[in-house]
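Explain this protein:
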Amino acid sequence: MKHLIAFVAFLLCTCIATSLLAGSVVERINKSKTLIVGTPGDFPPFTATTTAGNLIGMDIDLVKNLAFMMQVAIRFERMEFAKLIPALEAGTIDIAVSGITMSPERNRQVAFIGPYALSGQAILGKRSLLEPVTNLKELADTPLKIVALKGTTSESIADKLPKATITRTDTLDQSLMLLLEGKVDALLADYPFCKVAEFRYPDRDLAMFEEPLTFEPLGIAVTGDDALLINLLTNYLNIMKGSGALEKLQEHWFRNDKWIKELPDLEFFRALEEAK
């Protein structure tokens, strides 16, 4: 894998258009020799926080590889999902990652490079309530207490369920805790997150409504006023795809469950909430 990354780094350096003038973000990175990445760290398998407090996930590996290829250090700024785009606009972070859907609404605020993965909304909830549901119409007609993360496509989909009572949270950890404690009937989030949660808690009698509610391409979010940064990241993803490195990352984080053992359990989340 190291040899593959080194080869990709060489290709990236040769593909960047040197005739483009560096914008404000690239100038900042060049001056500080540091890439600042915003992420919540609560959205496995894309970005997650281990019991030891370390960030792991596909997005984390993706941007660590990027920093290595750029020959700069990397600094992560952990923040709530809803604060990622404002942080980009304010210039306090250089890029944002968290399985972010490349929606037209968001694309009016920031630029996206991708997609590097595909996802869709899913519902994870009490088996007794979800197993009888066989199609989207029945789901819409079912009165459920649903939790969704603020500022996400999950929240907008939840708002379209006419008989649902919606609870909104600042973090996905909070959403998951409400579901595991039985305070809501179901959690609405991206399919990979729901699948990981279902696997982690087999004794909680949870089930997924398996039919995806949406089709969502995921991208790296950046400010839209730095042409060189957008060019660099576009080249980076194209080379990662063409070299097979991106597929290897996807295989590790989507088809391997060993990393799940590093994630904290419900008691960890509860202790964090009580400490606030």
Remarks:
- Residues 196 and 202 are 11 Å apart (CA to CA).
- Residues 13-22 have pLDDT under 50 and may be disordered.
- The domain at 2-119+217-275 is CATH 3.40.190.10 (D-Maltodextrin-Binding Protein; domain 2).
- The longest strand covers residues 111-119.
